[in-house]
């Protein structure tokens, strides 16, 4: 479902990122394949420096369909960025990728908090986040973080996923499957 980034997948991902349904919502708005390749190399370096964790989202047959990143990692917290190519919208990839990624972040990397900033007008992303039983709207819970992502006007809603909430929800899901 997810794997570490590699440069061989950049061409496929660059083609997906340029779709007008995807491009406005991606973190890095690369104007050329070479720029996308450069940004991917930078992310790989940042991961070595432990300031970012970046993964490729794969479909069932192993083709790259998007990316998921934790960036600006400080004090066991960071911000989530994710995108999926338009042909794969509405097929459950986003939620499955987040669950896999959160499991890795919270269990392997000992991250405590993941913040998600979502444009208030991005209804698709807001609905995706609100489907996650462990995600909480944090505009009022973390006013300093909310203010930092909205320095001049309120463009983003802030959500957070706490390690303990995710692990509690995961235990509940495993219990439901087992019974």
UniProtKB/TrEMBL annotation:
<feature type="domain" description="N-acetyltransferase">
    <location>
        <begin position="7"/>
        <end position="132"/>
    </location>
</feature>
<dbReference type="InterPro" id="IPR000182">
    <property type="entry name" value="GNAT_dom"/>
</dbReference>
<dbReference type="Pfam" id="PF13302">
    <property type="entry name" value="Acetyltransf_3"/>
</dbReference>
<dbReference type="InterPro" id="IPR016181">
    <property type="entry name" value="Acyl_CoA_acyltransferase"/>
</dbReference>
<dbReference type="InterPro" id="IPR051531">
    <property type="entry name" value="N-acetyltransferase"/>
</dbReference>
<protein>
    <submittedName>
        <fullName>GNAT family N-acetyltransferase</fullName>
    </submittedName>
</protein>
